[in-house]
Please model this.
Amino acid sequence: MLSLVALVAAGACSSSAPSKSSPLTTGPGALSSTTETNAAPSTTTVAKLAATSPGCSATPVAAGQTQVDLKSSGDPRWYIRHIPASYSATVASAVIVDLHGYQEGASIHTVMSALGAFGEQHNFITITPQGTANPIPRWDTALGSKDVHFIGDVLDNIEKTLCVNPHRIFVSGLSNGAFMTSSMACAYADRFAAAAPVAGVISDVKACKPARAVPLITFHGTADGFVAYDGGLGKDALNLPSANGKGKLKDNLQILKLRKGLTIPQQVDGWAKRNGCDAKPTETNIASDVTEFVYNCPNNADVNFYRIAGGGHTWPGSTFSKGIANVVGVTTFSINADELMWKFFEAHPLP
Model:
């Protein structure tokens, strides 16, 4: 699973924990901090899901963007919680868990995806967890890892403290966060209704045995220099710092052996096969640089793939992504990933 940890997002970005006294770039109000105690991961199953979470009876929380601290596997961890102004402690809200890329960190990713701001318009909660950071922020995507357990703890925490609809909790992420999204669809298929990995979908997750077929919407550029459209590591990834901060990825012989792998279309095909979809998707050119591939799948377990011709390692429609084009390549504005994934999510709640 080292390849899933190593493949990357926004290589020139650095990360730090968000300030507890200054506002973030996005979202209403200043960033505050709160500490939550957290129980062991729950054993929620699809069959037992209620329409509301225990947090609908908890003390109401204020709208705005807040850092929430908790313990997971004995370690201090945190996530950024964006509550829209429309939030009501008596109405169950949808949630998107949004996972940052390698070296990017949660604070930067809130600006990259801008899902918090988008959630203000569409009345959903955005949760942006911080991955392991010693010293490079990243996700250990291996099933059974501390990071995978941490996401389960985050789900437990938000269901305990917020009024959310357990049938409408979704997961997205960029690059290494997209690989983590792919692992989440295996580890927590009974809790995440649908997944939206951006620039890094993985179907061949080791030991993946999902409890159900998880609907997928994904986006990838053909000129991605970090996660190659033709498979494996892109050449730009090799100049990123190693996970331990010593040297670069290209100095690691094991990393160099991972230069090739399944292509992105093959990864999407693998997900569709796992969901029981028809082998051949419907292909539609929706813009001069964007082609949509839609698989016909049973039980609403749909798979949609957006191929961006000439697109880089980017989040479609992101102005932040466009601003670092010298690092990540071209960002398309022919489509908007936030809009498309939210439309997809609304159509694909948990049964």
In short: The chain is about 25% helix and 20% strand. Residues 24 and 153 are 24 Å apart (CA to CA).
